[in-house]
Design brief:
- The chain has one domain (2-260).
- The N and C termini lie close together (11 Å).
- Strand 1 (88-89) and strand 2 (92-93) form a beta hairpin.
- It has a two-stranded antiparallel sheet with strand order 1-2.
- By secondary structure, it is mainly alpha-helical.
- 56% of the residues lie in helices and 2% in strands.
Amino acid sequence: MKQKLDRLYDRYNRRQYVHPDPLEFLYPYKDVRDREIVGLIAASLAYGKVAQILVSVSRVLEVMGESPEAYLRATPSKMIFTHFKPFVHRFATGAHLSALLTGIQQVIFEYGSIYQCFASGYRASHETVWPALTFLAGKINAAKGECGPGHLMPCPEKGSACKRLNLYLRWMVRNDAVDPGGWNDISPAKLVVPLDVHMFRIARQIGLTCRRQTDMNTALAITEGFRQWVPDDPVRYDFALTRFGIRDGAAGSAALEKELGH
């Protein structure tokens, strides 16, 4: 199985297969302080039809200008709510998005960057990034403004798989042909698989879980399964494995099943 997974990684873990994916928004930002903000916005809005995700993220970044970090440092929180009042992305309103942005803003004012906040909750002794992720999400959710971020910033302690937050961490911690990285002091070995319907189906096909719920415990179990092949980078195959379903739907999933011999 590891040989099959490595072949898929070598074939598909390339920039040419990224589009359409909100990950592509991170590439133009060379300063990690901008990239981590863009990444969190893109990951938070990464639900629904991919075409609409790309449109929504583009609209947010257009308002924030060349440097999202500079925008958040210079813009009063009330003005942020004004700027994004017309915004809508499926269930997310401008108030939800503005609460997320002001939460990020408060984290930057208190810690200097999103990374520094995350690192404050991170310990090398932790088995996974889950405690640090819980710490970061709590800090962002604490700055409610007119309302909270709602579903844009889930609470890990409630047992959700937190797919979008784990996807964000994959982007920021790993560094290869696809994931741009930037959080160099966080070990990829601690990452948790971003569990969505595509990865859940794949994990069941290759025997990594028999569970039926796509919750935190299932995400941790699947991550542990991948560790048997890559203990230092258990989310290594995430991008390559999920390309099939994301790009080609059911036909792609069938092709992947054939590739893996199931």
